[in-house]
Write a structure and sequence with these properties.
Elements (H helix, E strand, L loop, with lengths): L1 E6 L4 E8 L4 E8 L1 H4 L7 H23 L8 E7 L3 H18 L3 E5 H7 L11 E6 L4 E8 L2 E7 L5 H11 L6 H9 L24 H12 L8 H29 L4 E5 L6 H12 L4 E3 L3 H4 L3 H13 L17
Parallel strand pairs: 1-4, 4-5, 6-9, 9-10
Antiparallel strand pairs: 1-2, 2-3, 6-7, 7-8
Length: 333
């Protein structure tokens, strides 16, 4: 079986080809960051137009790199939601057109499931495990009992972690996307310089909250004069903020693993590329004999490889969708 995966849930257009044995033949990603940077975030109308411009060239490039044609494809896997409806529709309509014209099966994938399965592309991971999906739109903690068997343990009550990174970066006028810049500057700063609050870290639930932390950073910045906001102070603010976010994510995830009696954690989503989160989660989990698996950096951000792999799993279990499948903006997993 050879699956063509298509991803267009937000501002990355991607297509990938995967074989039944998990061999990834191609994974092409076109980022729109340059088009959205001046607005400080993703503009939905611009995102959907850019998807329209490059969806077909990206699919053609994925097939070319895989060394195949559409005649070799056995099924289409596409992100159905959650995400920006205009963006989702571009990928879905491209997928449906190819599937209908060639009488191929099509399967709609929950974007969150795609992220959850990304680590399995490169690792042999045991069940059950605890999975943290952390990105600009989601901060969710799951117990994963098997492929397709997911129990939501907790989620953010306000801002997602990645959203908090972007908002703090905007407060400091560091540009967009904020996570990459804050991660880089944090390495030059002192994480203990400011004792920012760590909301809900001791709360018995597995839920998260980052709005209060973001507000604490804003109040701190507002108390500083422009002349005092030196590069070194910005580095310290970034390091202290990042340490608070990572501390919350790490503590909740490891506690969930211990309380659910599993020795495995998977870390995935755009914020899973954060260097401190990857290192601290691995180090602190190892102290409790818990293994941590995270995707390679390219598979952390939105990509079609994870969608193709999720589609492979769904089609293997004969889970197929009709050609009438439509975009779903909000779709809990």
């Amino acid at each position: 079986m050879m699956i063509l995966g298509i991803e267009s849930s937000c501002d990355d257009t991607s297509a990938a080809v995967i074989k039944e044995d998990k061999t990834l033949l191609s994974n092409i990603i076109s980022s729109q960051v340059d088009f959205h940077t001046k607005y400080g975030g993703v503009v939905p109308e611009i995102a959907s137009r850019k998807h329209q411009e490059c969806i077909i060239p990206i699919i053609k490039e994925a097939l070319f790199k895989a060394g195949i044609t559409l005649n070799d494809i056995d099924g289409i896997s596409v992100t159905q939601g959650p995400g920006l409806v205009g963006s989702l529709l571009v990928g879905i309509n491209a997928a449906k057109s190819i599937a209908f014209s060639r009488k191929l099966p099509i399967v709609g994938i929950n974007h969150l499931e795609g992220h959850m399965l990304a680590p399995y592309l490169e690792n042999a991971i045991n069940f059950p495990n605890i999975t943290l999906v952390v990105s600009g739109g989601h901060t969710n903690l799951y117990k994963v009992s098997d492929f397709g068997s997911y129990t939501l343990l907790g989620s953010t009550r306000d801002d997602a972690a990645g959203e908090a990174f972007d908002k703090v970066a905007k407060l400091l006028e560091l540009g967009y996307p904020g996570g990459v810049v804050i991660d880089r500057l944090s390495k030059l700063g002192d994480p203990s310089f400011i004792d920012f609050p760590r909301p809900m870290i001791k709360d018995p639930s597995y839920d998260f909250s980052f709005s209060g932390l973001k507000t604490a950073v804003r109040y701190y910045i507002e108390k500083i004069s422009e002349s005092e906001l030196t590069d070194m102070k910005i580095n310290n603010i970034c390091a202290s903020f990042q340490a608070a976010v990572v501390g919350i994510l790490t503590a909740k995830t490891i506690r969930a693993a211990k309380e659910h009696h599993t020795d495995t954690i998977t870390l995935t989503g755009g914020v899973a590329a954060n260097s401190l989160l990857r290192s601290q989660m691995t180090e602190k989990a190892a102290a409790g004999n818990i293994k941590v698996f995270a995707p390679s950096l390219q598979l952390c951000t939105d990509n079609a490889a994870m969608i193709a792999f999720a589609g492979l799993k769904r089609m293997s279990s004969h889970d197929k969708f009709p050609y009438s499948l439509n975009a779903i903006s909000r779709w809990p997993l």
